[in-house]
Amino acid sequence: MPLALLALAIAAFGIGTTEFVMMGLLPNVADDLHTSVPTAGYLVSAYAIGVVVGAPLLTALGSRVPRKRMLLLLMALFTVGNLASALAPGFGTLVAARVLAGLPHGAFFGVGAVVAARLVREGRQARAVATMFLGLTVANIVGVPAATLLGQHLGWRATFLVVTAIGLAAMAALARLVPYVPLDERQSLGRELRALGDRQVLLGLLTAVFGFAGVFAVYAYLASMTTEVMGFGESAVTLVLALFGIGMTLGALVAGPLTDRALRPTLYGSLAALALVLVAFRLTMHVPWAALVLVVLLGAVGFMTTTPLQMLVMEKARHAPTLASASNHSAFNLANAGGAWLGGAAIAAGQGWTSPTLVGAALAVAGLAVAVTAGLLDRTPKGASRVVAGSPLTGRSVSSPSSRASGS
Hints:
Layout: H1 4-32, H2 37-40, H3 42-61, H4 67-87, H5 91-118, H6 125-154, H7 156-177, H8 189-196, H9 199-219, H10 222-228, H11 237-261, H12 263-284, H13 288-304, H14 306-316, H15 322-351, H16 355-377
Helix pairs in contact: 1-3, 1-5, 1-6, 1-7, 3-5, 3-15, 4-5, 4-7, 5-6, 5-15, 6-7, 6-11, 6-14, 8-15, 9-12, 9-14, 9-15, 9-16, 10-11, 11-12, 11-13, 11-14, 12-13, 12-14, 12-16, 14-15, 15-16
């Protein structure tokens, strides 16, 4: 795999850390800024709003910017947003800083996925995209627990200063390792919008909204399930979250080769497995060792859905894939917000801490239904829907790092 993928993974590590670390820092932030934990929870939503808005907006604004330069600009905005978070004097400014930090998230992964696919030979594009996403999964194993621990001992502002440093390191790696990737001569905002409006692209985005919501219906309440149902103490929460991150990493490693081999079957299988694992999790949550195994499996099958969904929208919008690729991350964040809301609604209705598992299973089944419907409606001749040599995703006209300065 090209070293450029390492640079993309480092950036993904920083993005994943800042996205999820706030959940563990909410009590510290609430105490320091003299607000309640539920109110501090808006900081999680603020980041998600930034992602949903920023993914299509920044991608559209940068539609004619060379991709390497675009990646650097997006990572610079991410770094500024985290520095602003560290220096925020009050709650309102911290909310604004979190929105700012979230704005480049979806656009970065959207552009990064297109770049990653172009860096490797045909038949390995999904593995390249999955490699970039490994940075996001490793963040949940190492970055989030370490940053949470740092914030608890040195203050939450120290956490965002460290993430700022990660952002600077990612910019250096991108500048050094990512080659110049030329824009398609025919690329334009109108072309990107037309590709985004393709029926198969829209069904892929809808699959992401429903299917991935099944993961977050449970993940958002995993800490409470750990103490209230599994019977562990608060000190075990970090371990359980790390196990979920290990599962995510395993899922990403498996999803790449499987998606390269058979995209739609991988998507169908992962969504079906997600529904089954969620039901099994509900049934075994009172058995501590079994619950821990299911946490790993939940992370694995949940994240296995991301690579085929990313590749699906990129392939169906293959002549102008960047906006569709970025919009997929808006869909994932809508799934995060919607799944957490529906899972919380079940708990608030008195259904108990295990009820989000059934909500998540129902959402996974809904996502599977949309995916299967899309497959049945896809009239593309066999093989033609795959990314093909010569398409904008696999063009080989990239320069080596030594010649990058001319077009970065």
